[in-house]
Design a protein that fits this description.
Elements: H1 7-21, H2 25-44
Length: about 55
């Protein structure tokens, strides 16, 4: 399984990065990295996920 970002989502990420960068460029980079890596990290745990009722 892989993450596929829609064009709309990528545009949203870029707008968010620009907005945060106006105040704190370093934070903008960190936030963007966190948001991009979040679904990748979730995928890393799909193999060990519980099935059925939890």
């Amino acid at each position: 399984m892989q993450v596929v970002w829609s064009d709309h989502a990528l545009q949203d990420l870029e707008r968010l990065r620009e907005f945060i960068a106006n105040v704190n460029p370093e934070a903008a980079t960190q936030v963007l990295q966190s948001l991009v890596l979040a679904p990748v990290n979730l995928l890393a745990f799909t193999d060990g996920a519980c099935t059925g009722k939890v």
